[in-house]
Amino acid sequence: MSRLALPVSAGAAVLVALDGTVLLMAQPDMRRELDATAAQLQWTSTGYLVAVAALLVLAGRLGDRYGHRRTLLAGVLGFGAASAGVALAPGVGWVVGLRVAQGVFGALLQPGTLALLRLCCPPERLGRAVAVRTGAIAVAAGAGPLLGGVLVDGFGWRAVFWINVPVAALLAAMTFALPAPAPVPSRAADADAAARRFGLASAALLAAALAVSVHALSRVPERGWGGAAPELALAAVLFGVLAGHERRAASPVVPRPVARSRPVAASLLLLLTASAGLFGTLFGTTFRLQDALHVGPSETALRMLPLTALMVLGAPAAERTLRVRGPRRTALAGVVLLVAGIAGLAGPGGGGASVAATGVASALLGAGFAAVMVTATGTVVGDAPAGYAGVVGGLKQTAMNIGPTLGIAAATGTATGAGTHGALPVLALLAALGLLPAAALPGARPLRGPAVGGA
Questions:
Q1: At 416, is the secondary structure helix, strand, or coil?
Q2: Residues with Cβ < 8 Å from 189, sequence gap 6 or more?
Q3: Where does the sequence pass through the membrane (predicted)?
Q4: Is residue 298 over pLDDT 70?
Q5: Of the candidates 2, 63, 155, the residue with the CA atom closest to the CA atom of residue 391
Q6: Distance (Å, rounded) from C-alpha 441 to C-alpha 327?
Q7: What backbone phi and psi angles, to 5 degrees, belong to 191?
Q8: 419 occurs within a structural domain
Q9: 287 with 419: CB under 8 angstroms?
């Protein structure tokens, strides 16, 4: 395994994770300086999200065909260039357009970060590498609001985009230095060549269906489920047309070995439900703390700090449990912890009135989500059929983009008189649905090597 593979994979994932969290702190200052409307400001996030979600699977297929080092390098360079463009943008229209471009390059780089681990890590080290990557993402998500606040207070909103430029340049240099991975053996040369081809019609249908879905869900907080219903119906029609086209296509955009893989499908559903439950809960709890209980942003972040801490500490513990107990038991335990954390926050004390109860519930959320992330990611990457690491990585990242959008839509669209906090029972049920795909994961497997002390 190249010593650079894990730092590049984790660093690129952190770059994307930080971008989303620091932007939240920059938007108020951006709105004042650029004299933007609320709708324009929303599109600085929505445009990026739609572009990423629509193109992740296609980007994975491109990586499988042309090489993941190439697509990762192009994505990192483009992401950094688009960030610099946003930092120099003279108006909000430029910001929105460049954020969409940033989303395109973000989609290009993300599947490669997972495919890189699959191609460069021996099987006995893969789980530890996934755990390190998960912990790094957790640190980025937790530190993002603090970093964003410091940068905006000291240098203005443009600084949160300038900071991406040197990081992207460093990652590009490290990616360029990576050795070319050895070819993945396939059953037959002609079958491998056919797998790497895919039709533009399938790719366009998938991108359109995902873009419409994410856009519809992202507008639920503003328009409600009724207002989003026409777009959701259109997305359902597009997915139906795509399914029919994929059955007839000689080279479908989601290859048939991937579509038939039970561990991959179960892991994707698990990530979708778990991320929806977690991020919807965080959205609702943040609003309760700040609007109903009048807790400041900094104190809100501190009260939820146990979530980040337990994600970081829980990732290596989950990896050890995964090796000993297997994916099924580890994932089931993770879902139970996640649901318990949401239920804890649903109570009056856990909802912020009691700092201790909120801390305990947050810790349960972090431990549960760490177990789910490590298990599902390791299963997706490790069980992907040979030659399809990119498309599987794209599907995994798609689930991780749609899940939070679905969760926030559920939090706002099912809110009661108690506000978004009243939607937590619905979010707990949504997270609990993850028990079904978790139960479909493989059981314990024989250990393939001694316990690994590092990756």
A1: strand
A2: none
A3: 42-60, 72-94, 100-117, 129-147, 159-178, 198-218, 224-243, 264-289, 301-318, 330-347, 353-374
A4: no
A5: 63
A6: 6
A7: -65, -40
A8: yes
A9: yes
- pLDDT category at 198 given cuts 50, 70, 90 is low
Q: How far apart are CA 2 and CA 235, in angstroms?
A: 42
Q: Give the integer Cα–Cα distance in Å for 337 and 206.
A: 34
Predicted TM-score (pTM) of the model is 0.81
Confirm if 180 and 17 have CB atoms less than 8 A apart: no
Cα dist from 234 to 119, 209, 237, whole Å: 38, 8, 5
Convert 26-64 to b/e letters by CB count within 10 Å (16 or more is b): bbebbbeebebeeebbbbbbbbbbbbbbbbbbbbbbbbb
Residue 111: name the closest of 146, 155, 66 by CA.
Answer: 66
Distance CA 120, CA 162 (A): 31
Residue 263 forms part of a structural domain: yes
Q: Is 179 exposed, middle or buried (0-12, 13-18, 19+ CB in 10 A)?
A: exposed
The helix, strand and coil proportions of the chain, stated in percent and rounded to the nearest 5, come to 85, 0, 15
Q: Tokens for 96? A: 């929105």
CA distances from 226 to 154, 244, 245, 421 (A): 42, 28, 29, 21
- What end-to-end distance do the CA atoms of the chain give, in Å? 9
Bridge partners of 419? 416
Q: What is the pLDDT at residue 386?
A: 67
Helix or strand holding residue 314 (H, E): helix 305-325
Question: Quick one: 22 exposed, middle or buried, by C-beta within 10 A (0-12, 13-18, 19+)?
Answer: buried
Number of domains in the chain: 3
Q: Is 186 left (phi over 0), alpha (psi -120 to 50) or beta?
A: beta
Residue 3 CB: number of other CB atoms within 10 A? 8
CB contact set of 283 (below 8 Å; sequence gap of 6+): 407, 408, 411, 412, 420
Final residue in a domain of this structure, among 221, 239, 254: 254
Q: Are residues 35 and 133 in the same domain?
A: yes
* pLDDT band for position 342 (cuts 50, 70, 90): very high
Scan for tokens 């879902």, then name that residue: 335
Dist CA 386 CA 186 (whole Å): 7
Residue 451 included in any domain: no
Q: Are residues 250 and 289 in the same domain?
A: no
Query: Does residue 182 form part of some domain?
Result: no
